[in-house]
Design goal:
The chain is mainly alpha-helical and 209 residues long. The chain is 60% helix and 0% strand. It has a domain at 55-195: Up-down Bundle (Four Helix Bundle (Hemerythrin (Met), subunit A)), CATH 1.20.120.
Length: 209
Amino acid sequence: MRAKLPQPHTDNITAERLSWLPWLLLLGLNGLRSWRSRQQDFPQHPVAAPRGARRAHIASLAGAAVLIAPLVPAGVLDRRWLPGRQFGAPMGLLLEVLGLGLVFWARATLGRYWTTRIAPASAQPLIQSGPYGIVRHPLYVGILAGAGGTALVAGQVRGILGLGLLAAAYRRKIADEETALREHFGDAYTAYAAVTPAYLPRLRSRRTL
């Protein structure tokens, strides 16, 4: 009797490939936005962070991406922490779609004022509509949720480490961004922050500013 050869986990491989598609779309939109900002008269955002801090942030994002996306072998870090694959992949894809959907919603709400820099443009209004009426930093919340979904699809230890590195990078950036926003908008931002949480929406209704 011939022994059965182990079959590859094709379902999980397919789910991992599907999990890359929203990120590729996000990268494409970022590239398009950068190109359009050079071709058109988009608002100019000042550089409020030191160059070293910006480089450290980009390096942290790159390191997190390498850990979360299982494209490069990482030895013992490739060990799975999820015992099964039938639940992790669909739940991870759902979380990723919801998280990146929030990112796209926030990007659409910001419109021409979206930027990767922490300082707002000189004539930029304080945006409180759309997802910014629910939390103050929906872009970062969505990215973290999407990355958590991608890590859940892979189900490997490296994804947990990458998610922690990503959270630390955005926590540092959010702190710098909060300082810049309070300096730019003054009391208006203080009042906005008093009724709008930074990350997780409140269960009770938001008061009108």
